[in-house]
């Protein structure tokens, strides 16, 4: 068991596992909330230092237990894979959003105000500027909008 702290504001180089305590926008989403919004882990503007080689990292989430998290990474929620398309040695920037609504339910963390997000390097050298959990609204067209599209 160990204590986990917030990510802070300084970018971090991903040469070993980063574990950060991340606040959720809202705890205890209702079923109606879940129909309208998806909870996502967001890693914006991360950078791969060498785009001539394949690179990858994985993302896990875990629930705190009385302010402490186990040494287990938690549940795998997704990851990022980069496959090079040229031999030019340039940096590569990207964004990642991974839906976690169902997994939050599975790990019984609905009422948790914070989750532990672990980012595990699997190859390549990334710079991670931060990690957050956000709610993204579903943009489902109304039946009238769908009918208008089918007439075009």
Automatic annotation (TrEMBL):
Residues 11-135 form the Polyphenol oxidase C-terminal domain. GO terms for molecular function: catechol oxidase activity. InterPro entries: Polyphenol_oxidase_C. Pfam families: PPO1_KFDV (PF12143). PANTHER family: POLYPHENOL OXIDASE C, CHLOROPLASTIC-LIKE (PTHR36608:SF1). This is Polyphenol oxidase C-terminal domain-containing protein. It comes from Coptis chinensis.
């Amino acid at each position: 068991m160990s204590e986990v702290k917030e990510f802070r504001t300084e970018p971090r180089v991903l040469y070993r596992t980063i574990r950060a305590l991340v606040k959720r926008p809202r705890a205890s989403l209702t079923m109606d909330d879940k129909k309208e919004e998806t909870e996502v882990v967001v890693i914006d503007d991360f950078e791969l230092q060498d785009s001539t080689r394949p690179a990858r990292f994985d993302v896990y989430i875990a629930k705190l237990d009385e302010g402490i998290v186990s040494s287990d990474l938690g549940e795998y929620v997704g990851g990022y894979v980069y496959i090079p398309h040229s031999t030019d040695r340039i940096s590569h920037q990207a964004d990642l959003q991974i839906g976690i609504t169902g997994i939050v339910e599975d790990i019984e963390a609905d009422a948790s105000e914070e989750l532990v997000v672990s980012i595990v390097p699997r190859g390549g050298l990334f710079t991670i500027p931060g990690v957050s959990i956000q709610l993204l609204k579903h943009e489902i067209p109304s039946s009238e909008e769908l009918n208008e599209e089918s007439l075009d």
